[in-house]
Amino acid sequence: MAGRAVLVTGASRGIGAATARAFAAAGDRVAVHYGRSTAAAEQTLASLDGAGHLMAQADLADPTAVRSMVEEVAAELGRIDVLVNNAGVFVSHPIEDTTYEEWQRAWAETLGVNLVGAANVAWCAVRHMPDGGRIVNVSSRGAFRGEPGQPAYGASKAGLVAFAQSLARALGHRGIAVTTVAPGWVATDMAATRLAGPEGDQRRAESPLGRVATPEEVAAAVLYLASPEAELASGTVLDLNGASFLRM
Ligand code: NAP
Asked: Residue 183 — φ and ψ, nearest 5°?
């Protein structure tokens, strides 16, 4: 089905920008959501094939801003057929080296954006989503493998999986399929410092393929999970970690 109305959160950079481009190349109209990176979001918008796209700003930690943003997108696009909950933050706060105040801040920010922010976008978007809609959440390998230096991130991504599965069961009666992708390392700004130098070589070696994912590879998986053909995948989690972490 071409010409869908698609909202991609965190589309100013990285996986979100690649996902926006993939939907636009498929003939869809895309709302490029962003937080602070206005110039980068403008670049994403300019790079999209086709017409009818727009930019939409909101700090996902702010429920009021989220609601206004989704309402604006729905008004411009007429509806929201597909929501991609992609935006996220990766804040380091190792338990033994972090003050109690830093610990509070890291948990509040991480859960506020990665989990509650995504839940709030979904609440608002579902009200504009016709039967047969799709929600794809971008989680992480860390939901299953653990994140020793970023425990709130691991917990937020595990929460996102459970949230998607709950919505899959809640919204199936409308033909809305809700799924999750769980990438390992992806070559984006978020991972750039960790993929540089000898440490980066170690991270690439985690996969027998000897490399990390590109944003375009994650985008292709999201595009599939948002397709009409993927209805029966509702509730699934698609691992994209190059066999670096295998689970049953
Ligand atoms: P990225 O390059 O750092 O981009 C993050 C995006 O999220 C940006 O568009 C940013 O918008 C947006 N964002 C962050 N905080 C926000 C806030 N408070 N309000 C609104 N938007 C906010 O990250 P990425 O690597 O593409 O990651 C995309 C998703 O994939 C994330 O959920 C991440 O956890 C997940 N993931 C990444 C990797 C990896 O290795 N890169 C691995 C597994 C999963 P602005 O810049 O405009 O503020």
From this structure: -75, 150
Amino acid at 152: A
Burial of 100 (0-12, 13-18, 19+ CB in 10 A): exposed
Domain-wise residue ranges, the chain: 5-240
Sign of torsion over alpha carbons 216, 67, 165, 232: negative
Q: Per-residue pLDDT tens for 72-127? A: 999 999 999 999 999 999 999 999 999 999 999 999 999 999 999 999 999 999 99
Domain 5-240 falls in which CATH fold?
A: Rossmann fold (3.40.50)
- Specify the residue with its C-alpha closest to ligand 1, atom 8: 10
What's the token pair of residue 6?
């698609």
Minimal-distance CA residue to ligand 1 atom 32: 88
pTM value surpassing 0.85: yes
Query: Can you tell me the distance from the alpha carbon of 86 to that of 183, in angstroms, rounded to the nearest whole number?
Result: 12
